[in-house]
Amino acid sequence: MSERPEMFEGVDTIWQDGEFVDFEDAQVHVLAHALHYGTGVFEGVRCYDTDDGPAIFRWQEHLDRLYESAKVYDIEIPFEPEELTEATVELIRREELDSCYIRPIAFYGYGPLGLNPSESPVETAIGVWPWGAYLGEEALKEGIDTAISSWRKHSSSQIPTSAKTTGTYVNSVLASLEAKGNDYGEAIVLNKEGNVAEGPGENIFLVRDGEIYTTGLAESILDGITRRSVITIAEDLGYEVHDDATISRGELYTADELFFTGTAAEVTPIRSVDDNEIGAGTKGPVTDELQTRFFDILESPPEQYDDWFTYV
Ligand code: PPE
Predict the structure, then answer these.
(1) Pseudo-torsion of CA 227, 232, 234, 237, nearest 10°?
(2) Residue 1's pLDDT is what?
(3) Is the pTM of this model over 0.85?
């Protein structure tokens, strides 16, 4: 086996099909259905080191989305949600992590090949590891430089974008490779209609005249859980939030502020699009307020958001 990537250094255990196994033993057959056809569903979740101890952020919502994604592909996860919760909590405890990223995955495993997956067993696994700022610490503080991808997001009439399916991420990989190949920090992907969809692994928000806009679910996006959280936080701070917006490419260039949201990306300001400075070319004041509030909530969960946290 090749050398361990730095991000997995120190990880001892993976939960696989009901058992806690050694990291090196968490293997899959090369003829597994999902490897050939992308027939898996997954989640990305974060556990934060709160004042009240390690807590998984919006676990229930992620779990719900996992089972909903699975339903679309007839993937019958052979575990109850409570079992996955127990496994995850136990895994974080065993790894003695205060904060981490959590990656549950369920996929059609090793069985007959061919497109019909119904004879393939569903395999399930969970990994946890420490994962810092996804787009870098500097991006969180100063903002990230982005470019519009020449790859369009697939339409939800082609592949459901509300389901978090392994195979569909080839679209994100293409956009990401292109952006990074051209020395941009991240891509912004337009939908089939040519309007803004989202980032390869993030939802996108726009601020104009003190009001907040984010692309609607009909724009071929993932119904991001950070997106939902930020909408709630913004509304609770008294902002007008338009969560069903259609945003054109040109509107990005003239926005007062732009930012990404995502489990991995958290709240990351966007300081340029296609080399056009957004606002003052750094983190804007509304983004700053929302980002600060977001991280404050994760550090000291207020009572009003208590049901967003599952304590380890
Ligand atoms: N859109 C896409 C396409 C996406 O992958 C994500 C999460 C989001 C929006 C934001 O959704 P949410 O995490 O529920 O707020 N991307 C995950 C994968 C990142 C990766 O590189 O892997 C994540 O953030 O965990």
Answers:
(1) -160
(2) 62
(3) yes
